[in-house]
Amino acid sequence: MSSSAGPLLGADSEVGRLRTVMLHRPGDELRRLTPRNSDQLLFDGLPWVDRAQEEHDAFADVLTGRGVEVLLLGDLLKETFESSGAARMQGIAAAVSPRRLGHHLAQDLSTELRGLSADDLARVLMAGMTFDEMPESAATVRSSLVWRMHHGAEFAIDPLPNLLFTRDSSFWIGDRFAITSLALPARVRETSLTDLIYAHHPRFLGVRRAYESHTAPVEGGDVLLLAPGVVAVGVGERTTPAGAEALARSLFDDNLAHTVLAVPIEQRRASMHLDTVCTMVDTDAVVMYPVIQDSLSAFTIHSGESVSVTGPQPFVEAAAEAMGIEKLRVIDTGLDAVTAEREQWDDGNNTLALAPGVVVAYDRNVETNRRLEDSGIEVLTIAGSELGSGRGGPRCMSCPVSRDRL
Ligand SMILES: NC(=O)NCCC[C@H](N)C(=O)O
């Protein structure tokens, strides 16, 4: 079990030295993807799971090689269930739906799940369960109309293949964690697991929450900590204007931010989150999809006696103003439109900073990486041929739990 000692939890930037990060080593939930369900489960292909695991292990090795403590979501979940009966009950309640299964089958399945080991329960809640896999000992199974009328390969509990993208289901700001509110049905249940981990795992005892009254969708991939007190929130396919406003007001109330930039992004899959088109690579620099460089704008939400909104104005200007710097450097990847579009699709702009000027990036985005290096950024590359089929890069696949404060 992870010890409760460790570096100061939380983060106030995208680039402070990374001390602890939460990843999810992909597992059986990826083996659930088929050509018929992959669209709905938000994957663009069927990853070769063993190879995806190898790529992910290599990603984790790069981080540990740089002194970063890697926590794995699956381990944390198992440890949470080992230490808390309440967590087990809550996890089961969030996964077993009487609406889908009917009251009797749902009740019997819940009883069976309560008897599982912590390890097995964690696996079922991540990988889901088909009707064929339901324990026959669940008293009502054979006599259940629901069981008999479902195809055996259908899901009684949906799998969560996008757990891989730990960035989206929670994030840290200041010394607090925030559980997000995911927009799409395929991902909604993920937050029930991150919520349990932060609420019950011994490592996080006593840590406070940010953004408690989440009413509208906010996803972590849209939240960029530009500087202490300054947050950018992408508003597009996932995070809604209502989500961005609710988050801003909550961060102001808790003194976790003084300025929030709401950044409209095109509502399409290629730019599902702000971090698919722009990530920070240094205290004053971002890498950005060149096609949007001139058009990206921001509304600025200011805290104060009454919350006010100004703009829109160009994002880089609004960001520099809020951050109190002369200029936000946009590292010009200078790519032709076709290469830029290909590398953006393959998460070339989705970098994870380990420290100011040091990032992890997919190796396949050769041109983007070369331009980053030309601008003085150290780029540590990882393979993502299989990991990338879910449309997420190093930033999407990581939730910084502890960064040195700037
Ligand atoms: N922050 C991110 O951009 N995360 C990647 C999420 C990919 C996932 N397949 C999704 O569509 O939600």
Task: Describe what you observe in this structure.
The structure is a single chain. With 406 residues, the protein is of the alpha/beta class. The protein has two domains: 266 residues, 5-stranded Propeller (L-arginine/glycine Amidinotransferase, Chain A), CATH 3.75.10; 86 residues, Arginine deiminase (Pentein, Orthogonal Bundle). The chain has 13 helices and 19 strands. The strands form six sheets. A five-stranded mixed beta sheet has the order 8-9-10-13-14, with helices on both faces. A three-stranded mixed beta sheet has the order 2-1-19. It is globular, with a radius of gyration of 21 Å. The two termini are 30 Å apart. The structure holds citrulline. The site of citrulline has 15 residues, from helix 8.
